[in-house]
Amino acid sequence: MKGYRHRVLDKLLAKKLEAKGAVLIEGPKWCGKTTTAEEIAKSKVMLAKPDTKENFRRLLEIDSDVALDGATPMLIDEWQTIPKLWDAVRYAIDHRREMGQFILTGSAVPDKNAEKEREHSGTGRFAWLTMRPMTLFESGESDGSVALSRLFEQPDKVLEKNRLTLDDIAFLICRGGWPMAVGLPREAALEQAFDYYNAVTKEDITRVDGVKRTSERVERLMRSLARHQGSQAPLSTLRADLLSNETATLDEDTISSYIDSLRKIFVVEDLPAWNPNLCSKTAIRTTDTRYFVDPSIATAALGLGPADLMKDLNTTGFLFETLCIRDLRVFAEALNGKVYHYRDKNGLECDAVVHLRDGRYALIEIKLGGPSLIDEGAKTLQQLTQRIDTARMNEPAFRMVLTATGQYAYRRPEDGIYVVPIGCLGA
């Protein structure tokens, strides 16, 4: 597959297969789930092909043992299109009593009944992995000279050179992390995100649950979500955006159902709020922060290209944040961690908190770059650090200002805060 690179998830997949009977890889279509699984699978069933799907469905009903009798691990792509497959795989795992039997891939969450059954019967047998579009490290634009894992070791010295410019970042925001776009000529690469956006609005959002939705309304909703990247915009705000261009009655429940459908096909991936122990009784905002799974979805929804972003750095800053959150999520999961957002009632905000399973965490501010913005980010990190109750939780393992530009990645001597251009960040 054009644009395929070694993925951060590759090692994680191999590790999960050693510990579970099956691994389920979910994520947006076109992000490389199937290609990644094919690298390790010994046999495969591709249910995206209509004839294959129908034949496999019939065979599964007649004799599930024969249907699942292939070299292991067996890849079953778009498994959710045959919900009964879940029980058949679970049964096979229980009776074979061996690890690494199946890899299931899917670009949509199953319907509610199948999802409920999956939650009850998968415990102990399945591992779940989420795949996202490629990080800049995976697509080769970042040299990965400053690994997130290394920063958790708190190195005294960091000094690496960054080769990406703001022009480069504007292009990479619009191109996105779609594997098929990597390595294509510039214009062809930029077209991939628009093709993805068109597929979502005209086809995928209906196919996820069979509910017919107006493509024009989906387009308006996605444009509204694009304008509110990195914010906690309530449904009422999104509704106001949509009603300005629509005469029909549109309630918040309807908007919520549309967003839920986008979430089921992994277009939307909001960031949960972080709830630390603080010295003061400051109220923490618990609303999730709105993000697309890739920044190029936002630029496609808004009809923007790299030149447009260079003329509007305010918009570029919000969309750069979406890119950074995408990359941080991938790197954090490789470290058994998750990414959160912090905001309190007084307006103190931290763009990203990477919290690992072992209790270590990092505070990260995301800025386009330049001395004044870096100082602003460092000030925010220091203020939040001072509010954390270190008698009840650890101090942050490190603090970082993650930037779009800058000649070097380095550690500030005055406060120990790392300043790292995204072109240097790796896993």
List the helices and strands and how they pair.
Blueprint: H1 8-19, E1 22-26, H2 33-38, E2 43-46, H3 50-62, H4 64-67, E3 74-77, H5 85-96, E4 102-106, H6 112-121, E5 126-130, H7 136-139, E6 146-147, H8 148-151, E7 159-161, H9 166-175, H10 186-207, H11 215-227, H12 235-243, H13 252-264, H14 295-302, H15 306-311, H16 313-334, E8 337-343, E9 349-356, E10 361-367, H17 371-387, E11 398-403, E12 408-411, E13 418-421, E14 425-426
Compute the number of strand runs.
Answer: 14
Q: Output the structural class.
A: alpha/beta
Number of domains: 2
Quick one: overall form? globular
Q: What is the averaged pLDDT score? A: 92
As a percent range, the share of strand residues is 15-25%
